[in-house]
């Protein structure tokens, strides 16, 4: 298992090595998808993942931002 960002980790045994919130099986892409569909962090926690925190959700956003920034610099 590798911690690749604050609160984000990759484990080949969990979701085929896709990034998840550390200590959970919640994929980063699921949280980002819910945000993209207009849900607030509070709604995500209340309606989908009551075992994560707003800081976990913010870590997903920071992780995605870092990936995008890395792509831009690679061009």
Automatic annotation (TrEMBL):
Coiled coil: none
One Pfam family it belongs to: DUF433
InterPro entries associated with the record: DUF433, Homeodomain-like_sf, WH-like_DNA-bd_sf
PANTHER family: SSL5025 PROTEIN, SSR2962 PROTEIN
Name of the featured protein: Antitoxin
Lineage of source species: Bacteria, Candidatus Fraseribacteriota
